[in-house]
Design a protein that fits this description.
Strand order of the largest sheet: 1-2-3-4-5
Order of helices and strands: HEEEEEH
Oligomer: single chain
Radius of gyration: 13 Å
Number of strands: 5
Length: 90
């Protein structure tokens, strides 16, 4: 299967292709919570979860006082928009 156009809303992507997209971006699937993915970059770490209503991202110890920063994105956003927002970091 091939990913739809990057401007296509994420809800129009088959789950296996979303998983392949995350793998291509260097994410690692959590073995205990298969809907969650770990992301490690040189300056930040995060946990991304594919929830029922939206995609949530938790940037670990990225906020003031080493607090986590949590953001959520609706699946109606395009894959390109989600990629730009999530992978630009906290």
């Amino acid at each position: 299967m091939v990913l739809p156009n990057p401007d296509t809303p994420l809800y129009n992507h088959p789950l296996p292709e979303i998983e392949n997209w995350l793998l291509d971006l260097g994410c690692q699937q959590d073995r205990k919570q298969l809907n969650c993915w770990n992301i490690e970059r040189p300056t930040w770490q995060a946990e991304l979860c594919l929830d029922v209503e939206d995609l949530s991202i938790r940037y670990l110890k990225a906020g003031e006082g080493m607090r986590d920063i949590v953001r959520s994105f609706k699946y109606s956003l395009s894959r390109a928009d989600i990629e730009a927002a999530v992978f630009s970091g906290p």
